[in-house]
Amino acid sequence: MAPNSKAVSKRHRPHEKYDKKRETKKAKLVEKEAVTNHPTEEDDLDSSEEEEDPIEDEPEAVVYRKPTTYDNLLASLGSSNKAVADMNKRRQREEEGKSDTEGDDDDSGSEDQISTDGEDDEIQGDDQGLTENTEKENNDNHSEEEDSDRYETDEELELSTNGQPLVDASSSASAFNEHLSHILSSEELKTLPEGKWKFKWEAPAIDMPNCRWKGTRHNFLDAVQSDAPYGLKPKLFKHWLQLYQKSGGKDFDSSKRRRFFSICNSYLDILHCNKRPFYNKGREEDSSAMDAYLMHSLNHIFKTRDLVKKNESKIAKHRETSEEEILSDDGFLDQGFTRPKVLILLPMRSIAFRVVKRLIQLTPESQRVNVEHLDRFNAEFGCEDESDDDDEKTSKNGKSTTHKSSKPSDWQALFGEKNSDDEFMLGIKHTRKSIRLYGDFYSSDMIIASPLKLHMAIGQAEENKERDVDYLSSIEVLIIDHADIISMQNWSFLATVVDHINRLPTKQHGTNVMRIRPLYLDGQARFYRQSIILSSYLTPEMNGLFNRQCLNYKGRVGIRFHASPIKLACEYKGVLEKVLLPVRQIYERFDADSMTQADNARLEYFTKKIFPKIKDSVQGGVMIFIPSYYDFVRVRNYLKSQNASFCLLGDYTKNADISRAREWFFAGSRKIMLYTERAYFYRRYKIRGIKNLIFYSLPERKEFYPEIMNMLDEGSYDMMSTALFSRFDLLKMERIVGTAYANRMISSDKSIFAFC
Q1: Is the pLDDT of residue 525 over 70?
Q2: What does the angle CA 76 – CA 82 – CA 88 come to, to the nearest 5 degrees?
Q3: Cβ-proximal residues to 287 (8 Å cutoff; 6+ apart), any chain
Q4: How far is C-alpha 594 from the geometric centre of its chain's CA atoms?
Q5: Domains, the chain
Q6: What is the pLDDT of residue 213?
Q7: Staple 124 to which of 197, 393, 419, 510, CB 3.0 to 4.6 Å?
């Protein structure tokens, strides 16, 4: 709920691996959630108007709230700490509109004080089973390692590049300071929860053909810092530049990674849905984006640490008056409820391995003298092959060998001898001279996790009150990379995780309440969180998440192909030319009034128009390709009710059952096979004996369409395929048939189209 606008200026107003058992549990959970987790009409982006007018949720009414956790916490602390008690009473007087001197006659408090002299800036919490937690780790900002020298900021360093001095660090810190020091207006507090953003400007996306950046508010691209160090801490910038030049890179200023870093450093929410991934011949582009968001994350973490340590130094010099200074000087408000500030969500361990290894490389050598638990990390996350060429491997004798497989190259890059486990979570802590992997989550600066693992942790916390996920309460930078792969897992898990970020914590975790930023105490943290979503394509679910749960007050910027019935500049070419067989491809459009009705309309069209043609088929060989597990369950249940002869190759079908189903289908003892897109993504089984191919809905991944089409039995004289679509499937259609054809098929008076 949005806070009352009257409280905007108030300083401290609180508001609100794959074993059988796990696979079975996941399957039941997915099927249960499938019925309730599918996109709504507003999430579909089949026109530019829908893209520019995001979801408009009904504004929540402002009602009287009971005292929150931190109301009670302040009251309890006040009973034993006079300074905190005075602060709490001043806050209450401010809310009541009284002056600081009114009601002083009733002030009273105990002289016994608890320790609040700066050591609480470090977060305390239980180990969560990763490392042994000690008092020294809980208070690591005051450990010997970090306090052996005074705090170090780049303002005190004289770094230079190629003999030229870098820009003064004060300007490089402006984006960070400006973002977190902004005070939301009453109008912003009213409109931000509604997600009412309109894209107001466009700009060419350099080195990305057919793409343009689209953003809200003003065009920040014209105002980004164009001189080194581009908003980075000078030490970080110098190290990054050296790595870039060492790898053979030229003209860093105009490189993709530098440009994308500048966009990240704007602190706007970012939706980049046209990133070519490393597993699809896009290693350089993928690495550039990864470099940019990792440097942005390190920059944010180090600047946060600099601010905290600078204030610690001031407090240490004035111990006797430090409490009063903290209460009266907003400059000491430098913390959140917990320490972790960056959350990176990734789909697989192998991808997390790439990210963490690069994170270590991007950290200046003086700040990674020691990387703790690196051997354990390599053992648990490592991949056998991390060469730049996905098709080549190096043998023990140093010779290059070519790896041949019947699986497509993208599958080889993701799953071929790679660690594709999707259940992991890793805390990373940066100290003055080292990086600690597997750190306690509450004392980590960054958390790298899969949506599945965090979803499980959230479920455990809901069942067991002794556990919690409060380490998500103070996330300031959220990065979701390879969202397209996550959509092949379970998108609802990701949506649940994002929904739990920036909630008020359930426990104190050793937090120094007097140094928490007002934006956290006022329940406004989600409006300051920057969210960066990276994917190779866009889905309604991604757009829905971006519209509903990415509410950064700075605004948002997105990149996508120009594809709508109105604007036809720069088109998708489609993938129909990759279909090698002479197949007559029929596209049948069904009508649906809204996105919420599209699923029912699709099933009704299938049962009345498509199934009657195949149920009495003598030859069989009918394969129905279904992208959504939700639709898979519905079609499966319908075929059961019709006593149809069919077999399944679904998301959770066991290997033995898959082998049996493939044999039955090829032999003709089962006339129909249901094959899900997710099962194909993970397994890539080629099915023999297909004579009639039905796309219940077009696949999200465009490369799957020709791969499936080319499975048709070439010896059959009556090969054919049928694809069902509605006007809400434009995003999929334009990737497969091309933008021009897709727009024509959506708007035409005819409902049946053929490609030969």
Answers
A1: yes
A2: 60
A3: 257, 278, 358
A4: 27
A5: 177-317+347-381+411-570 (3.40.50.300), 576-755 (3.40.50.300)
A6: 73
A7: 510
